[in-house]
UniProtKB/TrEMBL annotation:
Transmembrane regions listed in the UniProt entry: none
Protein name, as recorded: S41 family peptidase
InterPro entries, sorted: ClpP/crotonase-like_dom_sf, PDZ, PDZ_sf, Peptidase_S41A, Tail-specific_protease
Species this protein is from: Vicingus serpentipes
Family classification: Belongs to the peptidase S41A family.
Gene Ontology biological process terms, A to Z: proteolysis; signal transduction
Keyword hit for Signal: yes
Signal peptide start-end: 1-22
Residues annotated as domain PDZ: 88-161
Keywords of the record: Hydrolase, Protease, Serine protease, Signal
Keyword Protease among record annotations: yes
């Protein structure tokens, strides 16, 4: 803390160096500039001024809040990619198995799919240089296969049933990064959409999924935001606008130097009527909490799961002279009822980021009774006057404890070693054609694929060969979980990510509770708005 005054002056100096921010300049900024000049002129050892600058910025931001950060110029583009929604490359999902690059699936409409690359292909050479057996890493793959739109790369593909390498020339293009992982019918009347982030294109992806489900006679909807760490405020507002009717306050922001700003629904949404459930957990943050808070405050739907992360600080990017940037917190988010989404960070960043471990240790993830709120944090919903809570994060209407009943040391070890993915890729390499001919849909596969007969014993043997001892009691504890994970991964290899969730959600208690609540009279009892 003792370094804060000098470091703060340095930040002021940096801002003052940009003519657009000249109003921030003070004598203190020039004072720090003088210090740097003295170091350069008189200090006993050689110094790296760029490193001094970066260290100073990093340290001053540590003294602020947990979400104000410095981003070096070389990292800025990569950090933005998941939210901007695209990058430039060849368009494949891949895994590295036994030092060989395997195509899990080509991205739909991408350049690899267009030239005929298929799931299961092994990329052996890139521009004539062998890449198998050289200790390939994910970062190496990106370096070799990403590149500017319009440039070409030649790859040598090893494909099952072909003895010789197949040569492909791929013209790189913009590759979409999808934020909707799944959209399918959970029951004949209930649709399910899983969103992993709030990116530039999320609203369009959501609308596309919604239309697909409505074409299948969907009446009610589950939106799964569990594990969704947030993204763009604009996208959160767009998504809330899809499920709330017109002229509703979605969220407002306010900071000591940022006047109160309110954001309202403005268009007719695609799902303003029908029962709605939002799924959240301790990994749901920021934009996820904005949408969830608005839905809960207007009694538009039920929120099911566990208390969300509690990230309600608004960041604004400020560019620095070398292409780097500072994302500086400028305001806080508040739900329509006035609840502050941000939880306290008074005990420092370490304690702030240890919050999830603390929740586990205190039993909050397993027992709703371990969570207590003072009366000062009680709020009322706008229509039905139900009690909801502020103070950081969104507390669900229906609490679902984390399920550890099927977890064992054996499952943890095979999962951490990546054996599920490795084994599935090997299995698909030998069985893809047979499976594609036998099963014509996810539903057919889900009902008729015998995972235990096809995979289980071979997987246990594979785990043992990879130095994970299959203790019988642990294997029995996790058997259902293992079978479901393997079945889901096979389905993903055949039909994509949505198929994985269609299988895996059979063990998702929040998802199962959502279906139960939609099929009951809970919405009427709670006076929720859905007609």
């Amino acid at each position: 803390m003792k370094y804060l005054p000098i470091l703060s002056l340095f930040i002021i100096s940096i801002l003052n160096s940009n003519s657009a921010n000249a109003q921030y300049g003070t004598d203190g900024g020039r004072k720090f500039d003088a210090l740097l000049q003295y170091i350069n002129y008189a200090y006993v050892d050689t110094t790296d001024e760029n490193k001094l600058v970066e260290d100073a910025i990093v340290n001053v931001l540590k003294e602020l809040d947990p979400h104000s950060v410095y981003i070096p110029s070389e990292e800025l583009k990569k950090m933005n990619e998941p939210l901007v929604g695209n990058f430039e490359g060849i368009g494949i999902q891949f895994n590295i198995l036994k030092d060989t690059l395997i195509v899990v699936s080509p991205i739909a409409g991408g350049p690899s799919e267009k030239v005929g690359i298929i799931a299961g292909d092994k990329i052996i050479t890139v521009d004539g240089i062998g890449i198998a057996g050289i200790g390939l890493k994910n970062s190496d793959v990106q370096d070799k296969l990403r590149g500017k739109k319009g440039t070409k790369v030649n790859v040598g593909i090893q494909r099952r049933m072909n003895k010789e390498l197949l040569d492909f020339t791929i013209t790189r293009d913009e590759i979409p990064i999808f934020s909707v992982d799944a959209s399918y019918m959970a029951t004949p009347e209930i649709g399910y959409i899983k969103i992993n982030r709030f990116a530039k294109n999320t609203d369009e992806e959501f609308k596309e999924g919604l239309k697909k489900l409505q074409a299948q006679k969907m009446k009610h909807l589950i939106i799964d935001l569990s594990g969704n760490g947030g993204g763009y405020l604009k996208t959160a507002i767009q998504l809330a606008d899809e499920v709330l009717d017109d002229k509703k306050l979605i969220v407002f922001t306010e900071g000591s130097k940022s006047p109160k700003q309110e954001y309202y629904t403005s268009t007719t949404g695609g799902f303003e009527k029908g029962k709605l459930v939002i799924l959240i957990d301790e990994g749901s943050a920021s934009a996820s909490e904005i949408v969830t808070g608005a839905v809960q405050d207007y009694d538009r739907g039920l929120v099911i799961g566990r208390r969300s992360f509690g990230k309600g600080l608004v960041q604004k990017p400020f560019s620095l002279t070398d292409g780097s940037a500072v994302r500086l917190t400028v305001a806080r988010y508040f739900t329509p009822s006035g609840r502050c989404i941000q939880r306290s960070y008074e005990d420092g960043k370490d304690e702030y980021y240890n919050e999830l471990a603390r929740r586990y240790e205190h039993g909050e993830l397993m027992n709703e009774d371990s969570i207590s709120f003072p009366d000062s944090l009680k709020y009322q919903t706008i229509n039905s006057k139900r009690t909801v809570y502020g103070g950081g994060g969104i507390m669900p209407d229906i609490f679902i404890p984390i399920d550890t009943s099927m977890y064992s040391d054996f499952f943890g070890k095979v999962n951490r070693k990546g054996l599920f993915n490795e084994f599935t890729l090997l299995y698909m390499d030998n069985n893809r054609t047979r499976l594609e001919e036998k099963f014509k849909s996810v539903e057919d596969f889900s009902s008729n694929f015998n995972t235990e007969e096809e995979l289980f014993n071979d997987f246990i043997v594979y785990a043992e060969k990879n130095e994970v001892e299959p203790k019988e009691d642990q294997v029995n504890t996790s058997k259902t979980l293992i079978l479901t994970r393997l079945k889901g991964l096979v389905a993903r290899n055949l039909w994509g990510t949505s198929a994985y969730y269609q299988i895996a959600n059979s063990l998702n208690n929040s998802y199962l509770k959502a279906i139960e609540e939609i099929n009951s009279d809970s919405f009427k009892k709670e006076k929720l708005v859905y007609n």
